[in-house]
Structures are given as structure tokens and as C-alpha cells.
Amino acid sequence: MKRFISTIYGRFLMIFFGLLLIPILLTFTIFLTFQFNTLKTQVEEMLVERAGSIQKASQEYNLASEAVLDLFEDTTLNVQSIRYDRTEWSVEERAKLERGETISQTDRLPQVAFLLDETVVTLSPNAEENPISIFRDVSLQTLFLTALISSGLILFAVRLMTRRIDRVTDAVNRVTTGDLSVRIHDVSTDEIGTLAKQFNKMTETLETNETKNEELASVMAHEFKTPVASILGYATLLKRDGTSEKQIEYAMKIEREGKRLSRLSQDVLRLAKLDHTIVGLHATELSLSEQVREAILSLDSEMTRKRMNLDLTMDEVVMKGDASLLQQVWTNLLKNAVEYAYEESTLHLLVKEDTTHITCEIRDEGEGMTPDQVDRAFDRFYQADTSRHRNGSGLGLAIARQIVQLHGGEITLASEKQIGTTARVVFPKEDR
User: Fold this and answer.
1) What is the structure's pLDDT at 411?
2) What are the φ/ψ torsions at residue 289 (nearest 5 degrees)?
3) Can you spell out the DSSP letters for 372-392?
4) Model confidence, pTM
5) Phi, psi (deg, nearest 5) at residue 264
């Protein structure tokens, strides 16, 4: 019993019986008591009126008591007549009877007595067909029917609600066993429906993270294998070859592969944090134009080496965002553009602002990509040409896209082979 009361089902039933049925019963009892008394008074007045009619008919038509009573026979009344015995009545009652008045008596049902030709006639309602019994029976039947229907409706409502809660509980139990594909189908907009929608969002996020974890673990095992093998191989050669020239060469290669492995580890860690929203946005007012200028300056030596020109069209744009994360976006995109651009080519850079959006475009004149390469450009660890560009980790564009999406923006690529590639970043403009 205690366990039943501790459930939502049991508590709803207690609330129903405590707050609904009990007040109904009290109200009905009070109503029935007052109405019952009123009805008894009305029945008594009817009996007095009927007695008067019988007495009047007996006097006007000079009829015997039996004949008059036969005229007024009614299935709703019980009529009894006994010979008038003065000793059975009190002085006051005898006086009333002999004056032709009626005497009211109250037993379970009201009744009246009057004198008719030395005969005392008693009128009372029929025990089964009188208005009082009918009213009482109808009232009790109505109360029972109301309680029955109300109980049925509340049981149905409670069962409907607890069944939905049971579905949520079952889904949670399945998640705890590792089933992240479970979804709750509930289209309602009430609190339980909202809970189901939030649960579905949670499982979708968990399932996505689980997929990303599996993908990351698989790709990391493959990607880390190459630089580690190179380091071990060159270390072995370094031990075998005693010439200082070869030792320096192998040591430089080990250093290069070690740096690549370090960058790969940092990029993997950064992407994992972005995937799992571990990195919070420390949004502040920042100058987007100034950030792009700093990113260009950081690549000045590489652009000078390749004798590249710069075509810069820039509005002074201020936006709200995480300065350190956004700086990675511009650095990654510009580094790719410079790396894949032809020598003595022009790097085109556009930063503009309109009423609804902030746009940044970086276009190089270089190798470009095929449509298939463009489609896969944001895939993790994907490199369009691994033979020529082995210093990267293949995570730069994936990281850039994650950061842009965290800021509510969108990043796209457009490219043509032997013409160049355009990276376009668009942020919605916030009302300030």
C-alpha cells in the first residue's frame, strides 16, 4: 500500500478522492438534507389538502366515509380508517378532530389524520411510489453515477499520463544499457511532451558524440601510425649510420615528424573539445577586420617567399564572438589559401557587412579542387594531395567549421581545378 501511494498513479487517485469526491459528497449530503425536509413539508401540505377535499366532498354530497374514500383512491397514497375511540387520543387531539381539523404525525414518512363520520382516516404516502422515496432514490442513483463516471475518467487520465511517463522511464533504462538509438514518440506540447523532446535531443547528441568518438579513435589509430613509424625508422637509421651528415639528416626528419605529431595531437584535442562543447564561447566585442589583418601578417614571410600580391577589400566590421577561436578560423583558411596558391599569384580578401549578415571571403589563384575534393574538404583528416602537403593534419577545415557553427555561422567552399578556391564565411548579424 505504501509503495502504491508513493507512485504518481496512487497520488493522483488520492488527490481525486480527497479534493473532488469528498466535497461532492459533502455538498450532496447537505443539499439532500435540506431538500428532503422541504419535500417532506410539501408532501405533508399535500396530505392536508387531500384530507380537506375528502371532508368537503363528504359534507357536500352527504356520502358515507367508505364511498368518499373510494372516490379519492390514489396509488400514491395509503389510506387507513379505524373507528373513532376517544380514549386513544389526547384532549387536544380530540378537540382538533371534533372541530374537523387534521392532525399531522411524523414517522418515517409524514401522515395526517382527520375525523370522518365517527371514523378516523389516516393518509400517508405510498412507501414505494411517494415523491420522497422517488427523490431519495433518484438522488442516490445520481450520486453513484457521478462518482462512477468521475472515477472512470480520472483513472483513464491517470493511466494515460503514467503510461507516457513509463515510456520515458523505459527509454532511460535503454540508454543506461548503451542503446543510444532510442527515441520517444510523443507529439504533445505539455510538460511530458517537452520532456520527451529534450530527451530525444539528448540521445541524438550522445549518439553523435559516440559516433564521433568511434570515428576519431579509428582515424587517430591510422593517422598516428605514419609519423610514429617514421620517427622509429629514422631513429633506427640514426643508430646504424655513424656519419655526422646522415645523422643530421635523420635528426631533422625526426624533428619534422615529431612536430607533425605534436600538431596532430593538438588539433585532435581541439576538435574533440569542440565536438563535445567543452570549449565555452567567451563572447566579447571584437574587430573582425583587425583579426584578419593579424592573420595576414602572420603569413607575410610565406607570401613574400612566393611573391604573392594581396587584393584587400575590407569594411571595418565589429562583431560579438570568441576572439581566440575566430583567430584560428582566419589563420587556417589563409594558411590553406597561401599554401595552395601559385607563385606570383594574387590573394583576394573581402570583408563586408550589410543589414543582416557579416561576410568574409578568401580566394586564392592556385591548384583548386575537383567537385569530389570539395565535397570531402571538411572531412576529418582528409587531405586533397598528401604527397605534396604532408605537414598538415587534415583537421584545419573541420576545426574552422566547428568554430563557425558555434558562432551561428556557415562556411562553404567553391573551387575550380587550376583556377583557385574560394572560402566563404557568413555570420548572422546580431541586433545591438
Assistant:
1) 92
2) -60, -45
3) HHHHHTTSTT--S-TTT--S-
4) 0.46
5) -60, -40
